[in-house]
Amino acid sequence: MTSESDRAHLTFRGKCYEVAPGTTLRDAIRKVGLSPEAILATRGGELLTDDVILKPGEDIRLVAVISGG
To answer: What's the confidence (pLDDT) of residue 48?
Structure first.
């Protein structure tokens, strides 16, 4: 049985998604139905690349990329 502390947490626009650790950030973002190309991820204020492997209990904040012209 997997407890909540064993899961990684992705937070985007006030919604928290629990994902399995051991996957890449890119795959986890896709799994929750979001587009990795439209999101920046941070952990403790540090920008992450999408190939980071998620660890149990990790909290990742997702921010939408905004562009304009």
So the answer is: 97
**pTM for this prediction:** 0.86
CA 47 to chain centre: 11
Is domain 4-64 classified as CATH 3.40.50.300? no
3-state secondary structure the chain: CCCHHHCEEEEECCEEEEECCCCEHHHHHHHCCCCHHHEEEEECCEEECCCCECCCCCEEEEEECCCCC
One-letter amino acid of 13: R
Separation CA 3–CA 36 (nearest Å):
26
